[in-house]
Amino acid sequence: MVLKKLLGSKATRSLTVVSVLSDAKRAFDGGNRTRGLLLVGVAVLAWKWTVLGMAAQGIVKLLRRGGSSASSPA
Fold first, then answer.
1. Confidence of residue 74 (pLDDT cuts 50, 70, 90)
2. Which of 30, 38, 62, 70 is least buried, going by the fewest C-beta atoms within 10 A?
3. Closest listed residue to residue 54, CA positions, set 18, 26, 1, 28
4. pLDDT digits over 5-62, tens only?
5. 3-state SS string for the chain
6. Which of 44, 38, 11, 12 is closest to 26 using CA atoms?
């Protein structure tokens, strides 16, 4: 019950949306327009469903970590 109240609070939703939009800006700056557009869409949905935004950020972080380790020389 407490977790549901925390995730549904306006402050948590706002923080999640700002964080997802920050990831979208980073994607656009890095030249990844598709990922940036997807994250903007997720930011819109994250206002209603906070968990969706948090899950998307986790996936982006995993993809970013996997991409950086794969591009580094052995």
1. very low
2. 70
3. 18
4. 666 677 888 888 888 899 899 989 999 899 889 888 888 888 887 787 788 878 877 8
5. CHHHHHHCCHHHHHHHHHHHHHHHHHHHHCCCHHHHHHHHHHHHHHCCCHHHHHHHHHHHHHHHHHHHHHHCCC
6. 38
Burial of 20: CB neighbours in 10 Å, binned 0-12, 13-18, 19+: buried
Q: Scanning the structure block, which residue is given the tokens 């020389």?
A: 73
Buried b (16+ CB within 10 A) or exposed e, 34-49: ebbeebbebbeebeee
Per-residue CA distances from 61 to 5, 19, 28, 31 (Å) = 26, 12, 15, 17
Query: Of the candidates 65, 62, 58, which has an alpha carbon nearest to the alpha carbon of residue 42?
Result: 58
pTM: 0.66
